[in-house]
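PT: before anyone asks, these are the final sequences, not the draft ones from last week. 922 residues across everything. Please model them as a single complex and drop the result in this thread when it's through.
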Amino acid sequence: MWYLERDGLGRLIGLLAERGYRVIGPTVRDGAVVLDEVTGLADLPAGVREVQGPGRYRLERTDDGRLFDWAHGPDAGKRFLFPPRERLTEIRRGREGMRAEPAPEEDDRPLALLGLRSCDLHAIAVQDRVFLELDERYRRRRERAVLIGVNCAVPGSTCFCVSMGTGPRCTAGFDLALTELAEGFALEVGSRLGAELRDALGVRAATDGERAEVEAIARAAAERMGRSLDVADMPGLLYRNREHPRWGDVGARCLACANCTMVCPTCFCHDVVDDVSLSGETATRTREWASCFSAEYSWAAGAVVRESHAARYLQWLTHKFASWIDQFGVSGCVGCGRCITWCPVGIDVTEEIAAIRASDGAVEVRTA
Amino acid sequence: MSATDLRERAAQPEGRPMRIAVIQRIVPETPESSTYWMTWRGNDGEGYAFEAGQFNMLYLFGVGEVAISISSNPMHPHHLGHTVRHVGRVTNAFRNLRPGDEVGVRGPFGKPWPLHEAEGGDLVIVAGGVGVCPVRPAVESAMRRRDRYRRLILLLGARTPDLLPYKDQLDEWVALMERLGVELHLTVDEPVGTWLYDVGVVTTLFPKARIEPARTTAFMCGPEVMMRFAGRGLLELGVPPERIYLSMERHMECGIGLCGHCQLGPYFVCTDGPVFRYDEIAPLMEVGEL
Amino acid sequence: MTAPTKPRVAVFKMASCDGCQLQILDAEDALLELAGAIEIVHFAEASSDLRPGPYDITLVEGSISTPEQEAQIREIREASKVLITIGACATAGGIQALRNATGRLEEFVRTVYPTPAYVRSLEDSRPVADYVPVDLELTGCPIDRGELLRAIASLLAGARPRVSTSPVCVECKRRGTVCVVVARGEPCLGPVTRTGCGAICPRFGRGCYGCFGPAQAPGNAEALGRRFIELGLRPKEAADRFRFITGWAPAFREAAARLEEVER
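LR: through. Structure below.
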């Protein structure tokens, strides 16, 4: 473990930009901490606290100048490694017929993602299992990316990473990880590239006191989790409760607005939509984030498979917490709680699962 | 329940540029569907091979892609037939195609019919309506290697005679099947015009076909409600659930388990299916809107 | 292949403000490409050269609000291969549908017009689809130009246009717009309103007011209205959020009625 002065973080951003990286970090915009391109320390959210709850997110100002005393806004690494809208293919039709070619990258700079939380790093690892072997564009972005984690000191009230085993301490999947101390940062190195960056920054070894402070911050954060979730018997619990009355109950509250799936750092579903020029000479195929809450998502052979909000909620929750494990060998939930905070009506996954567990085996009585 | 192995998924074709095929012939099958026969443009078909039960993603310029099962003989991968039911945006645009027009092809995708499972015993194929299309390559493969199966039983049904595809080849098939000793039974729910075969839902053919459950491997394809009933019927006869297979249909955009649309419980229909073993899928078929 | 003839396109207007038609005239760069691809043979807003049908594609702006319009729309339908209605008026009755089901048409006419005797109105202002079959509805007040151009391009390519029925939220999130309901407590109709606008209002920090009409079925506008009440609106105020430009669209009309029940 090393010690990096506060200014050293600014130097790191500069160094990465110099090396041609597109440096993405946290910044305040429209009342939230979002991820966007940053050019220096001044872009980071100094003196900001979050108040999160079901369907509610507010920022509060303090004058302590601390940079990372918040959990996370709506964005995660997904926005950059798996962009919300991406041109995949360009097709031309001329004298020799159709020609399809991969569309060029809009911004081909390698990514440096700064300020990722442990849950975010785990989410990237989850999406790696989905995309890495099957999607060349993702693979190329992912392999060139630098990931810089920041340990949480102040988790949000909708966080439950401890329950999911994904935080709050960054333990894997980063090149560098920071812990904000009273003055500067404790710096941990997770890869050769990280070590190289550390050397270029000029750091000193962390003192025993600083090491102890890092552990204390992590312990305190773990104790301040806003929520918890019992994940025992997880695929089983949801698989055997597909007819549970709670799905109808949550379906009546759910707007099917898709926000949970859009802010979820692991949700990977997408549409590929087609455009064609008016002249009929060129066409494009564009990948867009899609959601299992959309009616059009399950449209097949002339009909929507999942018509009710209850069926769509069942699909999402069961996929996230149960069938994901069958498909990818890991839970699709990293306990970040974004789906709770950014649900306009404040539906809380931990509450829904707890309700099903409380009446495990109940079956909805349907009147014909 | 088998978790999808990453390596296996990665081995699926992906990222390769779409191949281009050229429409040769269009055969109207039912009021709502036609078969599009195509060959590869230039050497676009190099290395292309498929197995009975697999599907392709077909692309129409500027319109989009759609998953269509391959209905032609796997022995001739350079002469592809896809029967398209005009029910959606892309499939309706197929109506505009004429011989000489181009179609983009990615594939083949998905798990095929496990024909080898039936070898040495009886193969019973049950199909309804357009469900006949995905089993046609299996029928052709089985007839080509007729000696590998004891009895070959084909039970085909449709709501009306109109809705049964490949009628233009029916006489030819009947003759060929007679020669090869294939037991063909045809039925419709509502006979219209001159209909020389059976009347009733496809399960009513079961007693007539004198299925011998202990020797039987069954393939089913058709509307989900038909497969639910046919599946139950086969079970009642005593066909073991692990020797019944069926082909499912879901919305698909990628063919490689990436876009998420085709999920059915833990499965991606595009890579874990479309052909499933009955005991893997039957409990899921009982849940509405899954 | 035979030499392609350009599709004949007509634009008509019923009861409306012309704003959607202006979206076509404002298409700037695309206008030239559009002119190369289609032949506009009837477009009173743009040219006095009005040629008769039949038309390959007809765009109709405006609601059916008078007996004359009712007759005219039937003629237009007869003359059109593909009929596309554009805008909130043509697809949901428009702002003028506020008069519907009030039973006060006569009173409104007397208040607004100096010579009420000249005004002949139907009791209700209703969408075109209430009178004739419509092939495609492009909602919005005004419509999104990009959506219209994509629809035309798609028709020219031989396919029914893909018009998403997902809600505005999907677009906010794709664009990285911070949710105004969650981060500001703003009553925003985005979660139950059809996308297509590019999420303009939330991008400028205000709540969506539903001008693109209800999103996908079955929808749950009432639950969103109840959220507005939690955010501080009176039930009547929450109901009124749904009674605006697309208030006559059944999903919004019914939600408003139920929310008003809460008041009583």
